[in-house]
Design a protein that fits this description.
It is a single chain. Helices cover about 20% and strands about 30% of the residues. The chain folds into three domains: about 110 residues, Nuclear Transport Factor 2, Chain: A; about 140 residues, no CATH class; about 160 residues, no CATH class. The protein starts with a helix and ends in a 24-residue tail after the last strand. The protein has about 525 residues and is α+β, with helices and mostly antiparallel strands. A hairpin with a 2-residue loop joins strand 5 and strand 6. The chain is built from 13 helices and 26 strands. It is elongated and about 115 Å long. The strands form six sheets. The protein has a six-stranded mixed sheet with strand order 10-11-7-9-8-23.
Length: about 525
């Protein structure tokens, strides 16, 4: 049998439907790609082409699929046409044929949109809380989550304001596994402890199907950087017999503390902290709000065996120094000075200003402090860190900025809480400026806003050791703009749908050759639109 007769008698497209149904959700505009799998695909995209070809199993079983592309249709026509090229071996001859399959787009609501209509938009919520009076830890956690994109599965983020404490954040998820992933991420960044509860949401007694809503409470340790703490004796003994009174230098996945007199350092993880907290209370005696400004009158590096032992205890991270300081507010009033042993020998010199705790006027209401200290006297002054008032007076703006997560406030804060939130955010930005190690863990972005410089302070001498943010630490903020096709009246196409995308069938002009003596016809367009 010749090829022409074979084409007339054999149809390799037999058994392949030329019209089928394609389900699309009107709410989220996703297409049903399987029994329960909804695919986010745009028109004439590679993802939509895969969904269309999967709807016809005969293309994979009976014939060999060679090529497939779209034929353009009107967006409002509810029709998607795909031109497929197939091959099949018949009588040891490979036949190739073109087939156009029409998909009728039918509306069907997906499960997630159904939950939104029935007010069941989430099945798990992670409530992050910290029992402190500020929100600096929440701001730092927000930047960590943004950098690692740990909130990508969250359907909603809500800010909660506490009545007496700082409040926290609520993350809502559709899957319980996504909530557990966020808890694991937070646990790898800061010390926490978590608990779980569940509530029955729906119950079908006939099919014995249950669905629950899960609530995860994540409690962050109420210890922050620069806090002055008094640890239980048992915990201090496990940290190398260091003093009970210690200063918190940083809070990462563990709490780092240092004894400002002996320079012994220790690390407290979440298990040690919460285990110690079940017995003797372990919390901050003084926090950053109680720090006052001191002026360094004289500074001298410690020498001898005491200095060598302190350097060994701190692993050469700190330098023991004997300084003479006075409260900046006492200048012109009295001549009271304090002789202080501090761990800031690498940073302080005469004339510098620093922040610290004045324990001579501090009042502790904890009755367990004396029992924990066991008669050991506390130092009069504990210096925490150096400050740069002249630099901040001259430079009133920053060349960098931070991104924020899209959040919904549970209740509109009053004017007092709003001002406290702004003050906490400014304090967090200042902490980033002065801590280079902290800046390495988050993303900073360039800010093209012109800087404001105080001209009155132009001639004054500023601190030369301020850890200013370098330009190589900043990232360029990326903005994705839609693409517009010249001469196309359709909606703008997102750039993510362009690379890669399915090929769109553009008909080419075809010339029909006439008989001898007749002129060739004009080219005609073979589009089916």
């Amino acid at each position: 049998m010749c090829v022409q007769c074979l084409r007339q008698q054999v149809d390799i497209t037999k058994g392949i439907p030329t019209e089928t149904v394609l389900y699309c959700c009107r709410g989220c505009e996703r297409y049903l790609g399987g029994p329960t799998n909804w695919v986010d695909a745009g028109r004439e995209s590679r993802q939509l082409l895969a969904v269309c070809l999967k709807k016809i199993p005969a293309l994979r079983k009976k014939v060999k699929l060679v090529d497939a592309d779209f034929i353009w249709t009107e967006p409002h026509s509810k029709r998607v046409k795909v031109k497929v090229t197939i091959q099949k071996e018949v009588f040891k001859v490979i036949m190739q044929q073109i087939l156009v399959v029409t998909y009728v787009v039918t509306n069907q609501t997906c499960d997630e949109c159904t939950k939104q209509v029935s007010n069941q938009t989430w099945s798990a919520v992670v409530q992050v809380r910290q029992k402190v009076l500020h929100k600096r830890t929440m701001l730092y956690l927000e930047q960590l989550i943004l950098k690692h994109d740990a909130h990508r599965h969250a359907t909603g983020i809500q800010t909660v304001y506490g009545a007496t404490l700082g409040g926290g954040l609520d993350f809502f998820f559709r899957e319980r596994s996504h909530a557990r992933s966020l808890i694991s991420f937070i646990n790898s960044m800061i010390p926490i402890r978590s608990s779980q509860a569940r509530q029955l949401a729906t119950h079908d007694s006939h099919s014995n199907n249950y669905s629950f809503k899960y609530t995860f409470l994540v409690e962050i340790v109420p210890i922050c950087k620069d806090d002055f703490v008094v640890m239980p004796q048992a915990l201090a003994s496990r940290l190398g017999s260091m003093s009970n009174a210690a200063l918190v230098t940083s809070v990462q996945n563990v709490i780092h503390v240092v004894d400002p007199i002996s320079l012994k350092i220790g690390s407290i993880d979440n298990q040690k902290f919460f285990k110690a907290n079940t017995g003797t209370p372990f919390r901050s005696l003084l926090n950053r709000d109680r720090m006052i400004e001191f002026t360094v009158i004289d500074a001298e590096i410690a020498r001898g065996a005491r200095a060598a032992e302190a350097s060994t205890n701190s692993r050469r991270k700190y330098l023991l120094s004997d300084v003479v300081v006075a409260r900046s507010s006492d200048f012109g009033k009295n001549d009271k000075q304090f002789h202080v042993t501090t761990h800031l020998g690498k940073h302080l010199k005469a004339g510098d200003t620093c922040l610290g705790y004045d324990l001579t006027v501090a009042v502790f209401n904890d009755i367990d402090v004396d029992a924990v200290m066991r008669g050991n006297s506390m130092p009069e002054v504990v210096l925490v860190r150096k400050t740069f008032p002249m630099w901040r007076k001259r430079n009133r703006s920053r060349t960098w900025k931070l991104k924020r997560m899209p959040q919904v406030e549970s209740a509109r804060p009053n004017a007092i809480k709003h001002n406290e939130t702004k003050a906490d955010y400014e304090s967090f930005l200042q902490e980033l400026e002065e801590d280079k190690e902290m800046r390495k863990k988050i993303n900073l972005y360039k800010d093209d806003t012109p800087r404001k410089i105080d001209l009155d302070a132009e001639g004054e001498e500023v601190e030369d050791d301020f850890p200013e943010v370098d330009l190589d630490e900043l990232l360029d903020e990326l903005t994705i703009t839609p693409l517009y096709v010249v001469g196309d009246d359709r909606d703008p196409v997102d750039t993510e749908d362009q690379l890669p995308s399915a090929s769109v069938h553009v008909p080419t002009p075809q010339y029909h050759v006439a008989a001898t003596g007749e002129e060739a016809e004009e080219p005609t367009n073979s589009t089916s639109a």
